[in-house]
Write a structure and sequence with these properties.
It contains 12 helices and 13 strands. The strands form 4 sheets. A 5-stranded mixed sheet has the order 3-2-1-4-5, with helices on both faces. Helix content is 34%, strand content 18%. It has 2 domains: 204 residues, Rossmann fold; 145 residues, Rossmann fold. Strand 12 and strand 13 form a beta hairpin. It is α/β, with parallel strands linked by helices and 416 residues long.
Length: 416
């Protein structure tokens, strides 16, 4: 008999996470003999714990198809990390209770490293509790830091946005440099891995002087100031791309605010003004700075076509792997050729994905620590290729807003 599936979005959303949702739901609808319905968690895993499920069967085929070109999380996401099985077994047992009550045999969790860990734990616990659930992790993260997969859905689009935005702002600064602004600083996401910051380095091939501050490289203020001075003296201006995770040799973030998020991570934001003022104090150059923040991960209007296609493929593959009997795995993007660029769908065991973070390889960062190598450019450029514009109406993108009809509850209320 066909079982139901549960799908949830986790963590920070992206320009293409809904494309993965579209892939999951459309693929599931093609196999009604295996998957009767897809229930989505309202606001991520919290929707499962509180039995706040969304009936995706109530959505038309057109609405589900429109998810492919709609940014953000169509069902809502959350930053809620389930603790270890030992520390809070009741939450995992609650998930199994929900799955039992709603005849759910498939669990598709769309997120980054933390959700891979949760997915892995659910696959383990479901066996011990005598209610097997096929748990498949659908990769997503703009940080591009999941292991094994060549890249992560969401990254290609944020890389494209940062590369284009850095290029356009640099043209602006160059035109004003003679009598006004000489420094433009853009701050990008990336707590521990500098993949997004690296994308800003692609402007170098457009004759833009750029300095990049990576989380993988300890910040050296004297070398940084000397390099900025050298660039300005040569080009009359300089663009600086700083990752939010850039840090001093003692490990303290340039942007650290002294507060913590729901996962216990230091809350970041503010590296750009710190760096800009550092340059102003040392060299006296007039500056402007910007923090890309939500703009970089929400910019569906400038999404990479490659990224959209890969995000959809990961959702579709998750369903196909599940109905083929796979469990506790993550679909992967396997690069099979660089020139011409080609890729295929692979898979990786969650035991090798959970709690593993992929950093920028040393060979991708220039010897001075402030730029990217040709090898890095060769890696990045295929991921930002192609445009996949959403439909427009009255000058604005036409994005879908789902009805998100609730599934009737069957169990007692659960307190988080």
């Amino acid at each position: 008999m066909a079982k139901n599936a549960f799908y949830a979005q986790s963590g920070g959303v992206t320009a293409v996470i809904n494309a993965s949702a579209c892939g999951v739901i459309e693929a599931a609808r093609q196999h009604p003999d295996k998957i009767a319905n897809v229930y989505a968690g309202r606001n991520g895993i919290i929707g499962a714990l509180t039995e706040d499920l969304i009936d995706t069967n109530k959505e038309s085929a057109e609405a589900i198809a429109a998810l492919r070109h709609t940014p953000s999380g169509g069902f809502g996401s959350c930053r809620y990390k389930l603790k270890s099985l030992e520390a809070n077994k009741r939450e995992y047992e609650r998930l199994i209770e929900i799955f039992k009550a709603h005849d759910i045999g498939y669990f598709f969790y769309n997120g980054g490293g933390d959700s891979a860990d949760t997915c892995y734990k659910v696959s383990q616990l479901s066996e011990t509790m005598g209610y097997p659930v096929q748990a498949i992790h659908v990769p997503k993260t703009v940080d591009n830091d999941l292991p094994i997969t060549d890249n992560c859905p969401g990254f290609g689009s944020v890389a494209k946005y940062i590369a284009v935005s850095t290029l356009e702002a640099s043209f602006d600064v160059r035109s004003m440099a003679k009598t006004s602004t000489k420094i433009f600083v853009i701050e990008v996401m990336g707590r521990h891995a500098g993949w997004i910051a690296a994308a800003g380095g692609l402007v170098e091939d457009h004759n833009i002087p750029v300095v990049i501050l990576f989380p993988e490289v300890e910040f050296n203020q004297d070398k940084f100031i000397a390099l900025v001075k050298e660039k300005v003296e040569k080009f009359d201006f300089c663009t600086i791309v700083v990752s939010e995770g850039a840090h001093w040799p003692n490990g303290k973030f340039l942007a650290e605010q002294g507060t913590r998020d729901a996962f216990g991570h230091a809350q970041l934001g503010g590296a750009a003004p710190v760096v800009a003022n550092m340059v102003k104090d040392a060299l006296g150059y007039k500056f402007h700075w910007a923090v890309a923040d939500y703009l970089q991960r929400a910019a569906r209007h400038l999404a990479s076509k490659t990224d959209v296609e890969q995000a959809y493929a990961m959702g579709k593959a998750a369903v196909e792997f599940a109905i083929a009997g796979d469990n506790s795995i993550m679909p992967t993007i396997d690069r099979t050729s660089n020139k011409p660029y080609a890729w295929a769908v692979g898979k990786a065991p969650l035991s090798e994905v959970a709690n593993v973070e992929k950093m920028m390889p040393k060979e991708f960062i220039t010897e001075d620590g402030f730029g990217i190598t040709q090898a890095c450019k060769d890696y990045l450029l295929p991921l930002i290729q192609g445009e996949d514009y959403p439909p427009y109406e009255n000058g604005m993108p036409k994005y879908v807003q789902l009805d998100n009809v609730a599934v009737e509850k069957k169990l007692e209320k659960f307190e988080l």
